[in-house]
Q: What sequence folds into this?
């Protein structure tokens, strides 16, 4: 538990009860939506599942790129559990929707991968920016994607990641619009949560990071940006999906962008300074 | 001393020796330049001197506006010392250049106010953004005003301060251009030094805070802003000079914008988190 945590044990119990209930709904196939704004202050995670033969290179890829790929946990090969992140997580069914990549191409989406499971699969969980959205809301900042009931906007950029053998590619970012003064506060607030990508990596002119049309996200939904607002860009855990397109493993499973694994880790326990 | 300070006692001695030597040069009239980039990591201060009758209102003005007017010290009435900020400071001669306001109008500038000194004068010292410039440089950020050997650019804005009786007016800001990623780092770094205005209050479009021509600062010099840079705006301790124009005390003395009082306080001792 972080020395910065101010959660009471009742708050803690309530948050865990809520996330476990929601995860059971997801497991039962009763929730297939994006998870922005849900889960009462828990860390949400991006997920990448790869055959063992590909896992070591990918682990180094995460270590090379800690801002876009902040590693929370790695499973034992073949294990469908992620005990570190929650005692009862079953990685085969506890994500609202999965992307299935074959030879680097997205071939299908599904809400359960039990029938595909292989004994050599390794699961990686990476922190997600949805985790800090509640911190921003607590500070009075409005989140356009939540206000407009949309998935967050995500874009491919021209910012190269650091290659690890077969894994390489450009960084994907999530974008939230803010007025300048709110952007300045958002930077200070999100810097406290490095395991959820920390401070933004860009703000202002999207073209400077290779985004040519801000109204057409590559993943998720477009949201309104008002004239007095700046788009603020955080590194995103969808970055590995670009690296998988390039590495072309025979099979790879990820979450569908915006539809995350809800963990039992409370963000209040993970705050820096 | 801040628990965050990492200064060795040798560093500390060197910094104090350097600032005291520089202050003696200023006292002797041998230095009348802007003080950006000088003083080895010491807190620089804005200065306002007012007759006692006006001082209480101004003290509340500072308390009402702690971002633009972060109060470091207040003198006893009639005292030309500021012992809290440096044992040998003589406020009548230790600033490179003074502005003299009469009835709210700038009437003169001078390098020594000894001949004007009144027994009812109270001196206020407010933190200055020059104090965090060395922190930014240590982190590898370039400061255009120092690179171009110019005074920092300062602008009147449309951001109202909180009035205290006769003192009111809009906020003055200092501006430093940065790329977006450097601006994001500058926000995190300067947030650690609230006594030097802390994090910026605006970035990006100057018109949103009432600055219609960024190439024509109201105080200091214009600096180059490259196409991939954003102007980043910090609240500035010249704000009281606008409030003095409005309050119209019979006499008020300030520093000339950019020509600051160098104190014995080391910024490393004042860092938050």
A:
């Amino acid at each position: 538990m972080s020395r910065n945590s101010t959660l009471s044990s009742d708050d803690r119990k309530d948050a865990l009860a809520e996330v476990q209930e929601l995860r059971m709904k997801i497991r039962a196939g009763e929730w297939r939506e994006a998870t922005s704004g849900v889960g009462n202050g828990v860390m949400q995670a991006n997920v990448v599942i790869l055959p063992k033969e590909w896992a070591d290179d990918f682990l180094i890829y995460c270590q090379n790129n800690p801002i876009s790929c902040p590693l929370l946990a790695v499973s034992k090969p073949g294990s469908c559990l992620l005990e570190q992140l929650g005692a009862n997580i079953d990685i085969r069914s506890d994500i609202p929707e999965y992307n299935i990549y074959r030879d680097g191409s997205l071939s299908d989406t599904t809400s359960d991968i039990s029938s595909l499971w292989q004994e050599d699969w390794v699961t990686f969980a990476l922190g997600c920016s949805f985790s800090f959205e509640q911190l921003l809301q607590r500070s009075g900042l409005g989140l356009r994607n939540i206000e407009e009931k949309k998935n967050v906007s995500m874009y491919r950029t021209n910012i190269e990641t650091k290659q690890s053998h077969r894994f390489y590619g450009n960084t994907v970012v999530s974008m939230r619009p803010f007025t300048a003064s709110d952007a300045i506060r958002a930077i200070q607030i999100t810097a406290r949560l490095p395991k959820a990508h920390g401070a933004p990596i860009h703000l202002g002119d999207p073209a400077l990071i290779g985004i040519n049309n801000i109204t057409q996200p590559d993943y998720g939904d477009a949201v309104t940006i008002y004239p007095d607002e700046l788009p603020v860009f955080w590194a995103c855990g969808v970055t590995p999906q670009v690296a998988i397109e390039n590495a072309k493993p025979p099979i790879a499973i990820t979450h569908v962008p915006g539809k995350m694994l809800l963990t039992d880790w409370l963000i209040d326990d993970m705050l820096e300074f």
